[in-house]
Structure formats: structure tokens, C-alpha cells
Amino acid sequence: MDTLLIQVTNLKAIGLIHELEELNLIKVLKNDFHPVKRLSEKYAGKLPVKIADEIQNYVTQSREEWNNSDI
Description:
49% helix
């Protein structure tokens, strides 16, 4: 038997998965369905504040340079 990890990208697929399980074609090992969080929520607090501030300053400066360029 092979064990696969899948990511459901459409809620309609969950119904199909349950039907396959009822037909004894597959077995659902874990039924923890959690909606995907926004990236800002998922990674909040993962970067030290100092580094995050430096990155934000770099991005802001880059945008200003881009907007002021004569292209």
C-alpha cells in the first residue's frame, strides 16, 4: 500500500474523497481540514523585527527609485 499526502484545492473534492472511502477504495487517515491562512497570518512573527524592518526599508527605497527613474 502507498500512502499519499494530498492538498485539496477545491471543496468539491472532499465529497469525492468521502465517496471513494465509502467504496473502500481509499482510507482517510487524517480528517483535519483547516482553511489556508493568509501568508501574513501564517508567517507572522517568524522574522526578527530588525530584519523585517530592514527588508521593508529596502523595498520602500527600491520602489521610490523605480518611481523616480526616467524610463
